[in-house]
Design a protein that fits this description.
Helix content is about 35%, strand content about 25%.
Length: about 400
């Protein structure tokens, strides 16, 4: 067993045709099998854009290999998930007869490579050429080959068309769900409290959107403020509908409850009879401007953050309970309180801001704390934008994100 494996040599020796692409779709490397199958040298490939090296056949108006491949690669970048494509016809220009194009068939698979921060930093593009199988010739074998060609190509195109219809349907549902959520959440201009910024960012390239929500409620003549965020498990129209029910219920409960724990108790009992509210989480805070006190309670949700005037970051994590429908009756929920001085900042958020694939949640909380510490003196709107920029992955989060910032 060697002390160290030479992965560069392993990559070159792989029996399949594999290339490595950057997020900009530039070739970072390609193994010998890939170059042999493509009829290109390493110098003709590495460092150049994928579709500069392999454009669509200009003589075929129906050529769509480039469009399909680009869509697959961008899905991998957006979702961080592997994408196996349907059988593709993707012609290559002949290396022996420039200007002439060879009919070629491929079975591609694209996969992500993650960096230390959980972002997609490279793409693995593996192709298996099936041209010989599709274009079998001669005698009875040729006849069987042509039958197989028609069958394979027909089934692959049916699968591709079905996938496109499903993506279109999901895109329409996503659009409707986002519109529904926008209608149910308070718009920034509707929030009366000065020094407040709210942000909602839907997930990129995924369906798990529309479960996050936020709310601000004036209590007792405006001298107290209720600030809440929550997260519904699920996606699409169903999650948007459940989100609207829970947000409205908590808003009503907060106006009559003695404190945030009691408000969450009421909401938990309500969530127990709402289909789709299973494992939903929420956190609510009551801010008393006269006593400069924040009382808070959490139902399975990440802790609020209090950024003190000098930049010290305090996670409000002394009143954490299970999710809304998981607290056994009649055990009441817990709450805690802390004080603040003028100029402090209260921050509530959902887990899309701090969670990334293959990363411990403490790393995300640390990233949030550092961003808040660095920008604590900024006005709320600028602070909210800075936090989103520094805490969300560059390609966008795979979960939706709600963020509320209140300057106290």
């Amino acid at each position: 067993m060697p002390d160290a494996i030479d992965y560069k040599a392993v990559f070159q020796a792989l029996p399949g045709a594999v290339s490595i692409l950057t997020p900009e779709l530039l070739f970072a490397d390609a193994n010998r099998e890939f170059l042999r199958g493509a009829g290109r040298t390493r110098e003709q490939v590495v460092g150049r854009h994928l579709f500069e090296v392999f454009p669509d056949n200009p003589n075929d108006p129906s050529a769509n290999g480039q469009r399909n491949l680009a869509a697959s690669l961008h899905r991998v970048l957006a979702t961080g998930e592997r994408d196996a494509m349907a059988l593709q016809r993707y012609d290559l220009e002949s290396t022996e007869r420039p200007g002439e194009w060879d009919e070629r068939y491929w079975s591609p698979v694209n996969a992500p490579v993650f960096g230390p921060d959980g972002e997609v930093v490279l793409l693995v593009h593996r192709v298996e050429e099936v041209t010989e199988l599709i274009r079998a010739r001669g005698g009875n074998a040729g006849s069987r080959g042509r039958v197989l060609e028609a069958e394979l190509y027909s089934r692959a195109r049916e699968l591709q068309a079905l996938n496109e219809r499903l993506r279109d349907a999901h895109a329409r549902e996503r659009e409707v769900a986002l519109a529904l959520q926008e209608a149910m959440l308070p718009a920034p201009r509707q929030i009366q409290h000065q020094g407040t910024a709210v942000r909602y960012r839907p997930a990129v390239g995924a369906l798990n959107v529309c479960g996050d929500w936020y709310d601000l409620v004036d209590l007792v003549g405006g001298r107290r403020l209720g600030v809440s965020v929550g997260d519904v498990v699920g996606h699409g129209l169903e999650a948007a509908g459940v989100m609207g029910q829970l947000r409205s219920a908590l808003s009503a409960a907060s106006r009559v409850a003695a404190g945030p724990a009691q408000a969450l108790d009421v909401l938990g009992r309500y969530a127990g009879v709402v289909n789709g509210a299973e494992s939903a989480t929420a956190v609510t805070t009551f801010v008393d401007f006269d006593t400069r006190t924040i009382t808070y309670s959490s139902a399975g949700h990440p802790p609020p953050v209090l950024v003190h005037d000098g930049g010290r970051v305090e996670f409000l994590d002394r009143a954490t309970d299970p999710p809304l429908d998981a607290r056994p009756d009649p055990v009441p929920r817990v709450q805690a309180a802390t004080t603040y001085t003028e100029g402090a900042t209260l921050v509530l958020y959902t887990d899309g801001l701090i969670e990334r694939r293959r990363e411990d949640i403490d790393t995300g909380l640390g990233r949030l704390a550092e961003s808040l510490r660095r920008h604590h003196g900024d006005p709320p709107d600028r602070l909210a934008d800075a936090v989103l920029l520094e805490c969300l992955p560059r390609g966008g989060a795979t979960d939706d994100t709600a963020l509320v910032i209140v300057r106290l």
